[in-house]
């Protein structure tokens, strides 16, 4: 019988407040990380507004345009967990810079998708979808490292304020994205919704190299859990692909039900593997902490409710109501403006009174 290995999870009091160099300025680090995350969110919401222009420019059908959006999400979801753990082991700054480089290069490929289609003899939509997969991989490198680096450079008593500002910048990207996207596709070619990322990405890479300290998880082992990476990646791929294609193929079709079954088996094997690995990529003991699992469930519900409206709402506003891209973008901004204004305040209040009442107020 295989011996089960367990690993003690340090309590917050046992963990160092920061392992960043003493000279690191946490507020400058926050600016750099927020700028990079802003680029990610800006790109996501820009593409939502620009989808009709992209469809016309590439002579693509609706299914292909949906995959321009979904390919990014699929790559991001599959790789996020694994890349987050890689940052703990190999260095968060290294992987953050790598993610920035991949995302920036992929943005250039997105803008050149028509040229790539002619070069390789494929459809423009296929070239764009492939580049969007690379963008998703870059985003999966960046997002978990940005949050980990913030928790490293900010002491506990100021962490809530920093994360609140980070959340506000995320909302700002969602606000500006539709408007900027509308302006770009109205005034210029649709390719510029991707090419605009290039100067921002290059500047963010240089700023990260100069200002952001390197850090690793001092409690992480150096034997990386490649089995966990494989099982979680394949399981999440099957699950997310089934969710994306369920409406097209039918939720009770053999393909979709088969994918759900495969996902269940692979994710169950992932749990089994993690419980026995000496240095698992996911510490399952965390799910015994009520605040951890409850916070993740709440985050899932909020994200599902808020972000799930972007794609159908954009189609409805521009297709059914005949809105221009700019007007469609402006129509979707009020919710994000409220988030932008309240997120930093909520972060500061969390530092003072804790998260419970903030969550209850927000959900209520």
Q: What is the percentage of strand-forming residues?
A: under 5%
CATH homologous superfamily designation: MFS general substrate transporter like domains
* Major sheet details: none
Q: Secondary-structure element sequence?
A: HHHHHHHHHHHHHHH
Task: Give a short synopsis of this structure.
The chain has one domain: Up-down Bundle (Growth Hormone, Chain: A), CATH 1.20.1250.20. It contains 15 helices and no strands.
Description:
By secondary structure, the protein is an all-alpha fold. It has a single domain (26-224, 281-363), classed as MFS general substrate transporter like domains (Growth Hormone, Chain: A). It is 77% helix and 0% strand. The protein contains 15 helices and no strands. Mean pLDDT is 82; it is low at 1-20.
SSE layout and pairing:
Layout: H1 26-58, H2 62-90, H3 92-111, H4 113-120, H5 124-153, H6 156-187, H7 192-195, H8 197-211, H9 226-249, H10 254-276, H11 290-307, H12 310-320, H13 325-331, H14 334-353, H15 356-363
Helix pairs in contact: 1-2, 1-5, 1-6, 1-8, 1-12, 2-3, 2-5, 2-9, 3-5, 3-8, 4-5, 6-13, 6-14, 9-10
Descriptive tags:
mainly alpha; disordered N terminus; 0% strand; 15 helices; 77% helix; Growth Hormone, Chain: A; 364 residues
């Amino acid at each position: 019988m295989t011996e089960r290995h367990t690993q003690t999870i340090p309590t917050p009091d046992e963990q160092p407040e920061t392992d960043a160099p003493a000279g690191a300025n946490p507020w400058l680090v926050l600016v750099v990380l927020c700028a990079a995350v802003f680029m990610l969110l800006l790109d996501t919401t820009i593409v939502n507004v620009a989808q009709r222009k992209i469809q016309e420019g590439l002579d693509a059908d609706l299914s292909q345009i949906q995959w321009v959006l979904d390919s990014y999400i699929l790559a991001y979801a599959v790789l996020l967990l694994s890349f987050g753990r890689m940052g703990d082991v190999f260095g968060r700054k290294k992987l953050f810079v790598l993610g920035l480089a991949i995302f920036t290069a992929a943005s250039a490929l997105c803008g050149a998708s028509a040229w790539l289609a002619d070069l390789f003899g494929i459809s423009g939509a296929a070239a764009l979808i492939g580049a969007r997969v690379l963008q998703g991989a870059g985003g999966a490198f960046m997002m978990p490292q940005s949050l980990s680096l913030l928790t490293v450079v900010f002491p506990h008593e100021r962490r809530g304020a920093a994360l609140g500002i980070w959340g506000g910048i995320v909302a700002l990207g969602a606000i500006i994205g539709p408007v900027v996207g509308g302006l770009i596709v109205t005034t210029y070619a649709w390719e510029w919704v991707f090419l605009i990322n290039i100067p921002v990405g290059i500047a963010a890479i240089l700023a990260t190299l100069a200002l952001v300290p390197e850090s690793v998880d001092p409690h992480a082992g150096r034997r990386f859990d490649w089995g966990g990476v494989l099982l979680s990646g394949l399981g999440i791929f099957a699950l997310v692909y089934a969710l994306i294609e369920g409406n097209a193929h039918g939720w009770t079709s053999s393909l979709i039900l088969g994918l759900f079954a495969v996902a269940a088996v692979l994710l169950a094997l992932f749990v089994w593997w993690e419980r026995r690995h000496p240095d698992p990529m996911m510490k399952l003991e965390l799910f015994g902490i009520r605040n951890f699992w409850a916070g993740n469930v709440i985050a899932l519900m909020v994200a599902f409710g808020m972000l799930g409206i972007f794609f159908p709402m954009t189609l409805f506003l521009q297709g059914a109501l005949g809105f221009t891209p700019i007007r469609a973008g402006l129509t979707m901004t009020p919710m994000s403006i409220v988030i932008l204004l309240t997120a930093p305040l909520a972060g500061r209040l969390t530092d003072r009174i804790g998260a419970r009442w903030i969550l209850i107020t927000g959900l209520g």
